[in-house]
Amino acid sequence: MIKKKTRIVIIGAGAVGSTTAYTLLLRNRVDELVLIDANHKKAVGDALDMNHGMPFLGGAKLWAGTYEDCREADIIVITAGAAQRDGETRVDLLKRNVAIFDSIMTEVMKYNSHGILLIASNPVDVMTYFSWRKSEWPVKRIIGSGTLLDSARFRYLIGDKLDIDPRSVHGHIVGEHGDSELPLWSLANVAGAELQISEEDKEEIFTNTRDAAYQIISAKGATFYAIALALDRICTAILRDEGAVLNVSTLLTDYHGISDVFMGVPCIVDHHGVREVLNIQMTEEEEVLLQRSANKLKSLIESIS
């Protein structure tokens, strides 16, 4: 029996989309990789550039395609949308990106009803909610990149402060991927040991975590390397059926009193998508901040309903 080839389609060949494709290619994650962009010429150029490296990599087939190529896709990654401008918050992007997503989802739904949608476009929690409502697919198959990148930034900064490999640091940023996100200091640890970090350093670490995108955009115009690695991590958990715990954006139902909103929280991710939302413990103060973050997102959702 011939095994079906795995396929990932990336919609949006901008900085994030093309870097994600390159990351997936370098790590040999998939048999077929398709780039789709409103600027088809740009997608063709990216595909040609990467294909010229195939003698050093081998294996995958990559091309610039059309929405019809979504038909055989296991995962459809959406990175398309208006770019975040210097000084612009993620939520300022909302109205511009909803119109773009409405068109994208209409095309995707013509050809695919079985795959997993992975959303990275900002504001990601609201765009993921919109995609779920538009597609009417099972919620487990609609995933936002959520606070996975924020949590990685958080772990990196803690590790940097303590001079410890960030892979050995356990910590979570939850809530909105944006200004109302919050750190779960009550759960942060190194190998189960309580962190030896002052309150002043904690404040600095969280501020640099929350504001990282603004710092990077101000310095070079866009963020794309780390988010590409985060998207690669989610795709790998899906394709390998890992059951990995990742802080992705999913629909919450009575989660610490929160319902009917997509936010980043620890979830078990496997080949079905989000298999389970982990109901982790948090302090009363953290719970209040999480509810505040949810209320902010709900007000944004209401503005596009």
Query: Number of helical runs?
Result: 10
Oligomer: single chain
Q: Order of strands across the widest beta sheet?
A: 3-2-1-4-5-6
- Sum up the overall morphology in one term: globular
Q: CATH superfamily assignment of the largest domain?
A: Lactate dehydrogenase/glycoside hydrolase, family 4, C-terminal
Mean pLDDT: 94
Provide keyphrases for this structure.
305 residues, alpha/beta, Rossmann fold, L-2-Hydroxyisocaproate Dehydrogenase, Chain A, domain 2, three-stranded antiparallel β-sheet
What would you note in describing this structure?
There is one protein chain. A 6-stranded parallel β-sheet has the order 3-2-1-4-5-6, sandwiched between helices. Strands 7-10-11 form a 3-stranded antiparallel β-sheet, with helices on one face. It is 43% helix and 19% strand. The chain has 2 domains: 138 residues, Rossmann fold; 157 residues, L-2-Hydroxyisocaproate Dehydrogenase, Chain A, domain 2 (Alpha-Beta Complex). The mean pLDDT is 94. The chain has 305 residues and is an alpha/beta fold. A hairpin with a 7-residue loop joins strand 8 and strand 9. It contains 10 helices and 14 strands.
